[in-house]
Design goal:
With 256 residues, this protein is an alpha/beta fold. It has two domains: 6-183 and 221-250, Rossmann fold (3-Layer(aba) Sandwich), CATH 3.40.50; 185-219. It has helices at 15-26, 40-53, 67-77, 100-128, 149-168, 187-200, 204-212, 224-235; strands at residues 6-9, 30-35, 57-61, 82-85, 131-136, 174-181, 184-185, 222-223, 246-249. α4 links the parallel β4 and β5. α1 packs across α8 (224-235), α3 (67-77) packs parallel to α4 (100-128) and α4 runs parallel beside α5. Bound molecules: nicotinamide-adenine-dinucleotide. Nicotinamide-adenine-dinucleotide (NAD) binds next to α1, α4 and α6.
Length: 256
């Protein structure tokens, strides 16, 4: 049932978005990759996934800190049966020292962009008579940590918006849900391991187990493949009555 459907995955030239895009292409979906850059490498990545999977994969540049560009991404795609709002950034500072520009950028990219893409995509989904909206929130959409005020505010915000979109589409064959990952192994996280080892003077295993994954009871990172599988499940017919909720992929973090 997914063959021939088009999925837009925002912020998908690396990390979780890329993992979801790869899973979608492997399942036969047409996929739109996106980020704010417009490098040869971005377009080559789309061509590589297309060659690997036989799916139609395109890269569309859009800086999602800008609402018009977020709406433009959906319009340029021309179709949107599945929308994955994944693009996100982080900044860590106490609230009294939090730079206003960082606060504004995090709210714009992690929250406002999903408002704009959803607003642009819903009419297309209604016309097609089917749709899936999947917002990549975080364990920080359900709980908090110090020094992450903008990120936690944006992630709680997107969980709230997900519920409203679900209610506004409740009687239609459209669902809206949020996936809440704990720590996921991405290139960014991998790059933090050597620094953490050095800072705490510990080996790789200790750095991961006792420093990075203190709040993740499983003591294991989730993988981008697992996030891709969760997103695909939400697209399946089995998930047609799952709407307005969150699915945690966090090794037990939010059970603590
Ligand atoms: P990442 O940095 O690898 O990916 C972020 C993506 O967003 C990249 O493709 C980046 O180019 C894109 N992006 C950033 N600013 C953009 C902009 N202005 N316009 C368009 N695209 C932009 O990080 P990731 O870990 O894969 O994170 C993806 C999502 O998952 C984020 O929303 C993040 O908050 C969330 N998340 C990540 C983790 C984790 O442990 N990695 C945990 C919970 C939630």
């Amino acid at each position: 049932p997914l063959i021939g459907k088009t999925a837009i995955v925002t912020g998908s030239n690396s990390g979780i978005g890329l993992g979801i895009a790869r899973s979608f292409a492997a399942a036969g979906l047409d996929v739109i990759l996106n980020s704010y850059t417009d490098d040869d490498a971005d377009h080559a990545l789309a061509a590589e996934i297309a060659a690997e999977t036989g799916a139609a994969v395109r890269y569309i540049q859009a800086d999602l800190s800008d609402g018009d560009q977020a709406r433009g991404l959906v319009e340029k795609a021309g179709a949107c049966d599945i929308l994955v709002n994944n693009a996100g950034i982080q900044h860590v500072a106490s609230i009294d020292e939090f730079p206003t520009a960082k606060w504004d950028a995090i709210i714009a990219i992690n929250l406002n962009s999903a408002f704009h893409t959803t607003a642009a995509a819903l009419p297309m989904m209604r016309k097609a008579g089917w749709g899936r909206i999947i917002n990549i929130a975080s364990a920080h959409g359900l709980t908090a940590s110090p020094y992450k005020s903008a990120y936690v505010a944006a992630k709680h915000g997107i969980v709230g918006m997900t519920k409203v979109v679900a209610l506004e589409t409740a009687e239609e064959p459209i669902t809206a849900n949020a996936i809440c990952p704990g720590y996921v192994m991405t290139p960014l996280v991998e790059a933090q391991i050597p620094d953490t080892m050095e800072k705490y003077g510990v080996d790789r295993e200790t750095a991961i187990r006792d420093v990075m994954l203190t709040r993740q009871p499983s003591k294991a990172f989730a993988t981008t493949e697992q996030l891709g599988g969760t997103a695909l499940f939400l697209c399946s017919d089995h998930a047609a009555q799952i709407t307005g909720t969150t699915i945690s992929v966090d090794g037990g973090w939010t059970a603590l």
